[in-house]
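Posting this for the archive.
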Amino acid sequence: CQGHNTYYTIKQDAGQPKSQLMLDMAKTICADLSYDINGHMRVKNNVLDFKNSNFSPIWRFSEGDVDCALPTLTYNRSKYYNKIITKGAIVNGYQFTASIENTNKKSLYNTYDTPIVSKTNKNSKLFSDQLCQEQCMYEMVQQSRGLISVIMECSFMPFLDVDKMIYLNFPSLNINNEQF
């Protein structure tokens, strides 16, 4: 996280796990906290991923492959947002603010094909429009992760890691070369 400063102090009550402190610190810089295949902790800013969302898939799973079983998909339609607004601090009568909409036509919840459902966040510790924008992008990425869950058994593939893109092609499930 070299070069990133948190914009507020994080306090933790006695008895809370240290992992919660690490998660809170990562969230202040709009980052994800995970462990790589070697067990090393990684902090990764997912805002950059959002800006450069043309990931190259690292593997393609297809119906009939001997190294994978038919996946199970779960759609969480109960709680989605396709527009996020962040309101920050007010300085000299100006409120720092930003918003973002899901305009990805491949998304089930884009603003073109579904009604706009917005969520507004308020954080008086955000002292620039840029920090508000990064918070919007972070929230959009975080909430979009839980909208579709894919459970699939496959042979051991050590290169499949956190935040890697794959293609699924299972016509019997109406999944035709879709990215996950």
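DSSP finds three helices and ten strands in the chain. The first strand starts at residue 31 and ends at 35.
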